[in-house]
Amino acid sequence: MRRQKAMDQEVYRFPRSRLGALIERLARDYRVVGPVRRGAEHAWADVGPGAELALDYPTTMLPPRQFFAPPRELLFRFRRGADGRYTCHEPEAERPVALLGVHGCDLTGLRVLRSFHESSCRDRVVTGRLDRAFILGLACWAPCTAEAFCRDMASLESEAPAALYAWDLGDVLLVKVLTARGREVLQDVTALEAATSDEQVALRHRLRVRHEAFPSHLRFPPDRLAVALEAAADDLLWEATADRCLSCGRCNLVCPTCTCFDVGDEGTLDGAAAVRFRRWTGCQVPGFSKVAGGRDFRPTRAQQLRYRVVRKGKYMPERYGMVGCTGCGRCIAHCPTHISIREIFRQVGGGGGAGAAA
């Protein structure tokens, strides 16, 4: 306990020029992934020692959960032999992933992902990937997009489950050691040189300025969402908002805390071979809530929209102890009809604070 407490206070200088060495070191044991620029956008991609990491990137469209619970994943293959018996083959073991530069909203999303797969479906495949991963967290200095409200959802300051957490000061990053593995990798790449007093002062100043840069959009803390959403169960806002919903499912696909998937089989016509896979799906996709016999227990767009929002703000906190919305703003930015979960939270909670426009 004392060792961990001391480790939490370890903050070292890391020259930006050593990023290539860090990638090279991690590549021995991991598939290394980081944010890169693609035209006018940014995305997560495999990187090598000479890659240009875009550490000043805004929020990517797809969250890092794609590396732990992929959009489409092969579970196993089976094939019929000459004797008529079937044999099953699981996919080959994959390299663990190292993610560089993960923002607080997505670090929070990974914690929610773990909670779901541990307690709901006890999926050791996903939790095993998270256990084996190496994550470098990265502080944000300003909102990534106009739609972000991570300060309101208490994800701005998130550091876990990172092994190292960095603040970018330009030519140097200040890096906090959070795990023994993080310390091991860091000292393999650079001398462990403590941050200077000037750098510590600069960091404290930047953190104060950062707090002012993130406006408050909600007048209440996230732990009040459950009560507010329960009181709004019959509110007209669900019908009014759902009139604009196209049931396209984009909000589900870009969300860092959406966890739903379905399982399917694809086989040859003669039944000699097949694969079983799982793929992302979501509560806004038509037919998601349809069960055997054809009954759909959430047939309307209003019911589907309400379920998604209430799951984020009420069901997930009650079950996992964490609000299911990180405030990343992806679902708002990528909704073709501009439906805003932030605006819904504001309405059910009774208005917004300064700078609270959706």
Q: What's a concise summary of this model?
A:
This protein has 358 residues and is α/β, with parallel strands linked by helices.
Mean pLDDT: 91
Q: What structural class is derived from the secondary structure elements? A: alpha/beta
As for the number of domains, it is: 2
Number of helices, where a helix is a run of at least 4 consecutive DSSP H or I residues: 12
Question: What is the 3D shape?
Answer: flat
Number of strands: 11
Determine the oligomeric state from the structure. single chain
Specify Rg, calculated over alpha carbons: 22 Å
N-to-C span: 44 Å
Strand order of the largest sheet: 1-9-8-7-6-2-3
Strand percent estimate: 15-25%
Order of helices and strands: HEHEEEEEHHEEEHHHHHEEHHH
Q: Main beta sheet: strand number and arrangement?
A: 7 strands, mixed
> Helix content range of the residues, please?
25-40%
Low-pLDDT residue intervals, each spanning 5 or more residues: 1-8, 352-358
